[in-house]
Every structure is written in C-alpha cells, then in structure tokens.
Amino acid sequence: MNWADELTKNLNGPQADAVRHTQGPVLALAGAGSGKTRTIVHRIGYLIHVDGVKPWRIVAVTFTNKAAQEMQQRTIDIVGPVAADCLIRTYHSFGLYLLRQLAQYLEMPASFTIWDEADQQSVIQTILTSKFNLNLNKTQVRYFAQTFSSFKDSLISPDELADEVDLDQYEYGEIMQEAYHLYEQQKKQSIAMDFADLLYQPVRVLQSVPEALEKYRNRYRYFLVDEYQDTNYAQYMLINLLAGAERNLFVVGDDDQAIYGWRGADVTNILNFNQDYPDALVIKLEENYRSTQPILDLANSVIANNSNRMEKRLFTSLTEGSLPKLTVLPDDNSEAIFIAEQIARLSQSIHHDEIAVLYRTNAQSRLFEEALLQRKIPYRVFGGTAFFARKEVKDVLAYLRFIDNPFDEVSFIRAVTTPPRGIGEKSLEKIYAARFDNPEHSFLAIIGRAATLEIPAKAQLALTELHDWITEMRARVKKQVDLGLLLEDILDRSGLLAAFEEEDRLLGTNRLEHITELKNSMLDFQTRRPEGLLSDYLQDISLYTSTADLNPEGAGKAVNLMTIHNAKGLEFEVVFITGMDEDIFPHYLAQRNGDIEEERRLFYVAVTRAKRILQLTRAKRRMMGGQYQQTRPSVFLGEIPPGMLKMEETTAATSPVATYKKTFQAPSRKPVTGEKFKNMITAAANADSSVNPNFKPGDRVKHPNFGTGKVLRIEGSGESAKIHIFFSDNKSRKFLLRYTNLEKL
DNA sequence: CTTGAAGCGATTTTT
DNA sequence: TCGCTTCAAG
Fold it and tell me: A715-720: long-range contacts at Cβ-Cβ below 8 A with a sequence spacing of 24 or more?
C-alpha cells in the first residue's frame, strides 16, 4: 500500500497540504467542522508511515479527556496499532507524565498526590484561619484558590509575585503573596501537586535545567496541538519550549471557538503564531463537512454579532437539511421530559451515542438524567463532579491516598475524622502543632506517637489503632496488591462500610453502589495495567472527573450528557442545546463580568456540534434556590434572523409531566424521580416488601431492626415522606417511609 | 470536646 | 434539594 496516497486521498487541498508539510511550523486556522481532528490524525499517519518518524517521538495534545480519547482511537483506526506509542494526551496528562520524570529536580518523589480544587480549598482555608486569623466563606476561599492557580498559569512564583503583578488591584492583596507562599510550602510538605502544577512545574524545570530541556527536546520531535486558541501561558510555554529546537510544531485552532478566557487562555497565542514563527505555513480550512446549511446559517448569524474576529467564511456542500427548532416548555422539568421523549422517538432511526444533550452548567444535568432514567434510555454524563466529588468516594479515596502518601495533609484530615472516632478540632490542632515542629515527619509518624500528644485518652487510643492498621496496609501496598481486596479491607477496618450501610438503609442513599463503581474502576485499571501500583491508580484517576472518563470502552450506545465546554471538538448527529434562557445561557456571572462575547462563542461551539438535527429548548419557569422563577429568553435567540429557526411552544396542560405524576401517585408505591428511581429498580427484585400500607399516627408497627413501636407522625408526602416512630426502648427515630420495611400490627 | 440535629442559603465553564 | 453553619447535649 502506498501510504502517502492512502493518507491524503480523502482530504481536500488545504488538508492535504497540512498533512504533507511535515517539517517546520504550520498554523491551521480551522473553522468548526472543517476536519481538524481528521487532519491531525492523518498527519500523524504521514509522519509515521511516510517520513518514518518513530511514534514515540510524536506528541499530540488537546483539552478534554473525551477529545483525547477520541483522537487516540481515531489515530489507531487510521494509522494502525503502531500509533498506540504516540503520546496523545490532554495538556494536564502530558504535564503529569513529564512531571513524574522531572520530580527529582523539585526534590519530590515521583509518586506525589494530586490535589483537586476541593483539596486545595481546604488547605487554603486552614492557612487563612490559622496564619491570618481570617475566617472566610467558601466563595472567598475559592477566590484565593483560583487566584493562585491563575498566577501559576502565568508562570509566576510566590517570590516573583510582587514584581510581576500589581497586588493592589487584588482583594486581600496585602496578604496575597504570603498566603500564596504558605500554600505552596504546605503543598510541598504534603508531597502534593495541584492541577496548575501539572503544567507550571514541568515548565519551570525545563526553563531552569538545561539538561532536562535537552533530553526532552531530543526525545520528542513532532508536536501537534489542538484548540490552540485556548492555550494559556503555561501551556504555550510548555509546547514552545519543547518544540523550539526542531520547530516541528503543528497547531490548529479557531478564534471563534475560544471559550477558556476565564482560565487564562490567551487568543493572541494563535494570532501571534506568525510572529513566533515567521516562516510558518498558514493554512485555512474553511469547508465544513459536518453540518447542514441551515445549522451553519444559524451559527454564522449568531457569531457575526461578535467584534474582533478573524474573518472566515465557512461553507458546506450539505445544502439539504431540516431547520433548527426551538421548543419553549412551561418549566425545567417538562424541558427534560420533552427531551427524553424526543430521544425516545429518535431512537428508532439514530444510535443513542449519536445524540448529545448540552447544557451550560453541570447542575442542569440532574433533570435530564432523571427523565432518561425513567424512560430507560441509556446515557453517560461527562465531566462535572458527578462521581469523584461524591462524599463516599472521597472518603474512601482519602484512606487510599493516606496509605499511599502519609504526608498528605488533606487525606490525613479526612481519613482521621471520617467516620467520627473522637478526634475533633482541638486534637487536630495538637497534631498540627506536632507536625509543624517536625515537618519532616509524616502525619502517620506523628499519630504513631499519640501518647506524647496532649489529647484525651480516648483520642490517643483511636489514633494508635489507626496508625497500626494504616502501617500494616502500607507494608502491603509496597508490593503489587489486588486493589479490590484492599478497598474492601479499608472499608471494613475504617468503619466506613458500616456507616455507608446504615446511611443507605435509613436515608435511601446509594453510597455502596457508588463504592462498587469505584471498585470496578480499580479492576478496570488492573486489567489495563497489570503492573500498576496503588499510587499509579491514584494519579490516574486524579485527572478524571466522571465515570464516563473512567471507562471509555463502556461508551456503547448511550446518549451523551455534557456541558458545552466538554463538547468542544466533538460532533453528533443530533444536538439538543438546553436552557436557552437569559441568566442560564448566557450565564449571569459571565454577563456580569462582561464576557458576553465568550458566551456567544460558546453558543457558536454548541450549534456547530450538530451534524443534522439541532433542537434548542427553553423553559418559562425554572426551579432556582428552592422556588420557581420566571425566565426570559436568551439574548442569543433574538440574534437569530427570523426564518432560520422554527419555533413551537407546548403548554403545561399537555405536558407529559402531569401525566407522569398521576401515573405514579398510587399510594402503594410512592412516586420516584431520578436517583431514587435507580433504587426502585434494585428494590423491584424484592418488590413485595416495597409495598407499604398507609400508616397514620397511633398505629402500632414492627421494624425489622428496632422492634415494635408507635407511629408518632408522618412528615411530608410522596417520596420524601418521613415516618417518626416511638419505639419500646423509649427512643423515637425517623425513617424515609419508602425505604423502611414496616409491618403494621 | 465531640457529635448530631436543626436551620438556612445557594456564585459557571476544565484538568 | 443539598451542604454548610450554628447550637446544645453528652
């Protein structure tokens, strides 16, 4: 086979130029749907098969996990299995990969812990209270965390801060430098890195250690960067440092799709590429192969409202196509149900994984999940904090992380206080003080000397016990272990298992179900990387946010639920853009910050994800802060010329919501929504026991665990109904009615 | 001192 | 609805 022909024959002129021009800098200005990924993938193939470049000399980076996975898969499909040796990663994953190898230059072991935002914020919170006597709320603490990250995105260390920025323009400017410094110090003492470090630290090492730079410049010779318009300074430096010698740098981007300004992304990185590399070949990809003309018309008419854009004229040969539609629903619930029904209808002709439901904020996903679950339509939720931010998951991970890294302050605190074992604020302060005096000793070592701490005997005992079994576990994980068994041991010995069981039973949570999911991810990991250690697993998952990231193969035939940010770089036959209401999209905070043009680009990104069918929805009322509020239509709707959008409105009376509620209002089985519905499916196995008679105050009842008692009162109704029972042990307890197996006497 | 219960407000997008 | 803060009992 002639690879040169094979890899260019299905490309248009400019695409083929971009693929063939493998030496030296190339900038591809690529409109939405113009075959960016396709070009990158074919270029990788050309490098390997025509130029004879070794795959491991090729680095390709993009932004989101899903986009990276997709690029990797498509490369293997087109180029062959040899492409598995290319480094196709997200920026952060590439940064982590380098950082592990460069950690020695930072006097850090390669197996550091990675702190997410919540971890970061809890450390900053502690610093602000203990060192500055500032008791700030969550929003203010988040502000500190974001500010520190923005410094690192701009490659500014605590020492350089005063010279580089005008601290007066920052709130708390007078303590900013000191706080930033303390945070970095604590982090180092915890043997931890935050997300910004994954880029900042490798860049700093490459800048200051010539031999390190030399080594990686030698190893990696070809760089391909997707979404270049969204790079921040640290990302820009990382790539340009490494590619700077050979200058085989291929970047693609579109200024109309710049949507990460809030994270320090700088569009001028792409606009100035020509100044960085005056000899760069500039290629324009303007033919759209993705969407039909009506979809493109809508996209173009909206983005035209932005000033300061590079003129581009996107065209397509797919002139036929149905008009995009806007459906106005009475409320957010009916919006979700409407979408679920549309999807059910489309299922006849279109695969579920060719359908995407897009929203502006992760919080909006809940109603869609519920509606899809009710109709048994499979779905996957991308991004968000859906899984790894769950309390039970973080609880278990805290133990795993503490076992892996006994210096980690965040994991230690969480593990030692969850579940409660008599260690409170005061005891923790004592532990802190001891650690402050001996920063070279781990938290584990310090609780190993519990007897020397001035804390209650009960607390000493608890600490010693914890120390002993954590030590035992640490000995175990030095070698390769079955992570699933380890997890079970931890659940058991920590007391978490009992706590979760109790909660699931009394409150109807799904904690153990989520733990099982975590366990599955471990089994998955061990299948994928049989040599993998606990620390590898922990670093691996730290870059994932949802279970959808966890098992890419599990994609199957599920509908995709994601934010618009997460959808960038992807395409679907059918796209729903939801929440077309003022303050939702554009988001009111963006509006307030004057980022309306970025919101408009976001809308442009959303629209251009659709290949054939584009459906917009909005709701006239939405549940906000516990009550319904009227909404106004998004400004973006007003920017669409009449005739480009078909409109329809459905009313409450015909809304499926009402019908649904009625069907399920039967007294024997309480109505269920969302998460709870899942329980019902599981509960369906022992269906008979889930049928409760109606109880009223005064009834005598028997509870399987607490024996007989008298009903005091029923609080609330429907799925959230709670029953208060006074038991024969003279104690009253309350339960969620629908999860309690009560027998009427 | 620690913990559970009651009461109150909720501020975005990614890794 | 959820999670955090406040308060009082053990």
Answer: A718/A670, A718/A671, A719/A670, A719/A671, A719/A672, A719/A673, A719/A676
Q: Which nucleotide is nearest to A509 (CA to C1')?
A: C2
Q: What is the mean pLDDT of chain A?
A: 83
Instruction: Name which of A696, A617, A644 is nearest A324 in CA terms.
Output: A644
Active-site annotation holder among A36, A66, A600, A738: A36
CA of A361 to C1' of C7 (A): 35
Asked if A721 contacts A738 with a C-beta cutoff of 8 angstroms, the reply is yes
CB-based burial of residue A166 (10 Å sphere; 0-12 exposed, 13-18 middle, 19+ buried)? exposed
Q: List the one residue out of A472, A413, A399 whose CA is nearest residue A443.
A: A413
Q: Which residue is nearest to nucleotide B14 (CA to C1')?
A: A64
Largest CA distance in chain A: 88
Report DSSP state, residue A86. S
Helix, strand, or coil here: A233? helix
**Measured CA A122 to C1' C1 distance, in angstroms:** 24
Measure A449 CA to C9 C1' (Å). 32
Give the H or E element holding residue A225.
Answer: strand A222-225
Three-class secondary structure of residue A247 per DSSP: coil
- A276/A284 Cα distance (integer angstroms): 18
Q: What digits encode the pLDDT tens for the residues A120-152?
A: 888 888 888 888 888 888 888 888 999 999 999
| DSSP label at residue A272 | T
Chain A span 576-635 residues with beta carbon within 7 Å of strand C: 626
Cis peptide before A456 (omega within 30 of 0): no
| Measured CA A425 to C1' B2 distance, in angstroms | 8
The single residue listed with the structure tokens 């003080």 is A433
Contacts of A633 (CB under 8 A, 6+ apart): A328, A580, A581, A582, A618
Rounded Cα distance, A627 and A621, in Å: 10
Q: What is the pLDDT of residues A418-477, one digit of tens each?
A: 888 888 878 888 888 888 888 889 999 998 888 888 888 888 888 898 999 999 999 988
Q: Which two tokens stand for residue A26?
A: 């190339």
The pLDDT score that the predictor gives to residue A716 is 52
pLDDT at A579: 93
Residue A79's CB: how many other CB atoms inside 10 A? Answer: 22
More confident residue, A541 or A215: A215
Residue whose token pair is 């509606």: A371
Q: Tell me, yes or no, if A36 is annotated catalytic.
A: yes
Contact A294, A323 (CB under 8 A): yes
Strand A281-285 to A26-30 pairing: parallel
Q: Which residue has the higher pLDDT, A733 or A452?
A: A452
Retrieve residue A214's tokens.
């030399």
**Residues A485-491: what's their mean pLDDT?**
91
Contact predicate A576/A607, CB 8 Å: no
Q: Per-residue pLDDT for A587 more than 70?
A: yes
Is residue A257 flagged as an active site residue?
yes
Quickly tell me which residue has 């929440």 as its tokens: A579
Can you say whether residue A114 is alpha, beta or left, with left for phi > 0 and alpha for psi between -120 and 50 degrees? Answer: beta
For residue A306, report the phi and psi dihedrals to the nearest 5 degrees.
Answer: -85, 140
| Residues whose CB falls within 8 Å of the CB of residue A366, separated by 6 or more in sequence, listed in order | A674
Helix, strand, or coil (residue A479): coil
One DSSP character per residue, A675-739 reads HHHHHHHHHGGGGGGG-PPPP-TT-EEEETTTEEEEEEEEES-GGG-EEEEEETTS-EEEEEGGG
Q: How many CB atoms lie within 10 A of CB A552?
A: 14
